[in-house]
Design goal:
Blueprint lengths: L6 E7 L8 H4 L8 H8 L2 E3 L2 E2 L4 H10 L3 H4 L20 H5 L5 E6 L18 E4 L4 H4 L12 H7 L5 E14 L3 E10 L5 H4 L2 H18 L4 E6 L21 H23 L5 E7 L25 H4 L3 E4 L8 E3 L3 E2 L3 H8 L5 H7 L1 E3 L2 E3 L9 H5 L9 E5 L4 E6 L2 E4 L18 E4 L14 H7 L4 H17 L11 H16 L1
Parallel strand pairs: 1-8, 1-9, 2-11, 3-12, 4-5, 4-8
Antiparallel strand pairs: 2-10, 5-6, 6-7, 9-10, 13-14, 15-16, 16-17, 17-18
Helix pairs in contact: 9-10
Length: about 500
């Protein structure tokens, strides 16, 4: 093992549903994912892991350990958006760099496309990947897209696949749209076209494997955050994977994703470092069901973007041989925010949450933030029988849908359609015991109003939990306002973008 702690390989899939891996569906579905399942067989499989409501939020939660509502990264980052990862919010990479780690982020970023938001000025030595969801990347190939409109291209076209390196040289050159370059080098390798999407997973895989090999040869522990483009819409597969399963394009894409995982695990085996490496496989949000058959599967009610369990529950597998017992299934509450303090604890810093509350120096940066994550290492290793987390807050893009405390979930407002639906606020909060009704399917039962009346005692504790939660925002308020798609805010954003370009 490296002196400063284990290597870390985090594989973050995109829009993969809770039951899309065969270690979760147990043969109920027709396809298998043996390489993903291997992580479960050799480590832990979590049933109650919560991601976030959408892509940007899930990624921000994982890499910062903070709630997206706190960082302002609650919704999808569109080309040209002013919101992005702020320098005051430390990433996992920035926190492990002083411990001697080599750091790389490969694949989809989605935390802002301006230069100041790129991973290589937020603790990563290298970044190779795309900046948006796939359907945004392929918009320029639509027949009515304004390709011949220079001003539109100048301000709103998606950026290409970037190859970036952190640098000690501070480049003060300024791009009219993407801003100051700063201490990094940036090479745009060209757009992620529909044709390129067919082989992008091979490209990303090669970069991650190369970084792992170079770090191992240099004797440096590594953090590799490998972000696949699978399984976000739209799925563009090469001939190798097309029509492979007989169960549709999504199942075919899952086979490619499983192969990627197998190649990464095989590299660790080949280098003899599997026992010294923490491997995590998870997804950024709940399944996107409304695009089925090019969409994920989950037994839970709802989907990505909604406050039901199906919008937030994600697969989560973690392996660390000799530390995390093999083939265990854990039912405690876990969230992507827990990754940062858990990895820091594995690297020897078990009190990072307390350090950041008081003010913590990491390299040449000083951070003072409220980590919403918990150190789950004692739970994962079996030293503690219980999860360190009792609660979870179901934030949408702008609103709090619900909270969970242990077995109970309390809905304050509900929504059944991500894009076209309206928020509904019940007269009283709606309780669900997730150990009695994990799929939230009995809330439509004729007797449910009686149940609500009997369980009104759950409302007062929920209010107390919310009060305690709100107090953390008084001391550590949201870093920035999240983007909104109401006309007034959109107009303000457009005018600001144009004004910046004309300066």
């Amino acid at each position: 093992m490296a002196e400063t702690g284990p290597n870390v390989l985090i594989i973050l899939a995109d829009d993969v549903g809770w039951s899309d891996a065969s270690c979760y569906h147990d043969g109920l579905m027709g396809t298998t994912t043996p390489n993903i399942d291997r992580i479960a067989d050799e480590g832990a499989r979590l049933t109650d892991c919560y991601a976030q409501a959408s892509c940007t939020a899930g990624r921000a939660a994982l890499i910062t350990g903070q709630l997206p509502m706190r960082t302002g990264l609650t919704t999808v980052g569109l080309p040209g958006a002013e919101q992005g990862l702020q320098p005051e919010d430390p990433t996992l990479a920035e926190l492990v760099k002083p411990l001697g780690y080599a750091t790389a982020q490969i694949g989809k970023n989605h935390l802002g496309d301006r230069n100041e938001f790129l991973p290589t000025v937020h603790g990563f030595d290298e970044f190779y990947g795309n900046l948006y969801h796939l359907n945004a990347e392929e918009e320029p190939e639509q027949p009515d897209y304004p390709r011949d409109h220079p001003a539109f291209q100048r301000f709103f076209a998606p950026r290409g696949v970037l190859d970036c390196r952190a640098s000690e040289v501070d480049d003060d050159s300024v791009d009219e749209r993407f801003g100051r370059v700063g201490k990094q080098t940036i090479h745009d390798s060209g757009p992620l076209t529909r044709e390129r999407m067919e082989t992008i997973e091979d490209d990303l895989l090669n970069h991650s494997i190369d970084f792992i090999r170079r770090s191992h040869e240099a004797g440096e522990p590594f953090l590799v955050w490998h972000n696949t483009t699978r399984m976000h819409v739209w799925t563009r597969l090469s001939e190798r994977w097309r029509d492979k399963t007989g169960f549709g394009v999504y199942a075919d894409g899952m086979q490619e994703l499983d192969w990627v995982v197998g190649e990464l695990l095989g590299t660790l085996d080949e280098l003899g470092i599997a026992d010294d490496t923490i491997v995590i496989f998870t997804s950024d949000n709940g399944a996107e069901k409304f695009t089925w058959p090019d969409g994920g599967t989950s037994p839970f009610r709802g989907e990505k973007g909604l406050g039901w369990e199906g919008g937030f529950r994600a697969p989560f597998l973690i392996r660390w041989p000799g530390h995390i017992p093999a083939a265990q299934v854990l039912n405690g509450i876990f969230s992507l925010e827990d990754v940062v303090p858990t990895i820091l604890a594995a690297a020897g810093v078990g009190d990072i949450k307390e350090r950041l509350l008081a003010g913590h120096q990491a390299g040449d940066k000083h951070f003072r933030v409220h980590l919403d994550g918990y150190n789950q290492l004692p739970y994962l290793t079996g030293q503690s029988p219980e999860s360190a987390r009792d609660e979870f807050f179901y934030y949408g893009e702008h609103d709090l849908f619900a909270i969970r405390y242990r077995n109970w979930k309390i809905h304050f407002q509900t929504k059944d359609d991500w894009f076209g639906g309206q928020l509904e606020r019940p007269t009283v909060p709606l309780p669900v015991n997730l150990r009695a009704d994990p799929f939230e399917q009995h809330m439509s039962a004729p007797s449910y109003p009686i149940y609500v009346g009997e369980k009104l005692w759950t409302v007062m504790p929920a209010g107390y939990i919310l009060q305690q939660h709100a107090q953390t925002f008084a001391q550590f308020p949201p870093r920035q306002a999240p983007p909104d798609f109401n006309p007034s805010q959109m107009l303000a954003a457009v005018l600001s973008t144009v004004a910046n370009g004309l300066e």
